[in-house]
Amino acid sequence: MFVAHGGGAGAGVAAGPGGLQINGLGGTSAPWTIVVLMTFLTLIPSLLLCVTPFARLLIVFHFLRQALGLQTTPSNQTLIGLSMIMTFFLMQPVGQTVYDTAVVPLQDGKITPLDALQRAGTPLRMFMSHYVREKDVNLFLELAKEPRPHKVEDLSFRVILPSYILSELKSGFQIGTVLFLPFLVVDMVVASITTSVGMMQLPPVVISTPLKLLLFLMVDGWHLLIGSLMRSFQ
User: Where are the transmembrane segments (predicted)?
Assistant: First the structure.
């Protein structure tokens, strides 16, 4: 092997079986892989909100807690944990596809990190395209001044990401409002009865909250709510 040494702080140049190699610059993609992975870890919270059903689920659960008249039960940590578990259940097939098509080839050294990101984006775009509203897509296509694609699967992430999160917010508020109405009727009936019998010193919420909890438990509310939410993504 021939080694040429430069003077001073210059990098050495070595000629081996693979040709010339500049020492000190690295001959592997491991540093770039670490950079990509660390960047991805910092983006996980945002990705969780933007490309998954997490936002819709959490909004509905908060609406339920307010409708039942419970301020801190279940706690925020419980609702967030439940939303994450349901999100994992719904996104597992998409995550498996991303792992098979992007992560495994990247680990085997068959593709670059940029290629892996492009491959991982395809299953996510397909998932979001099923639940995005055309009205929201048209809005962001107009704002981005992009031509209308022939298929919704051809939308760029610049358009489909804000369109999807806006659609999820609307869906979450719609479900939460429908969920709120039966408990609102209970509140109105209890308030009307307590006022008519002259119980002005007793807040209606003291009576309505146990009644709403009994109603929710009698109809097996958690089972019905979770089942309806899961079916809304099928």
Answer: 32-55, 173-193, 213-233
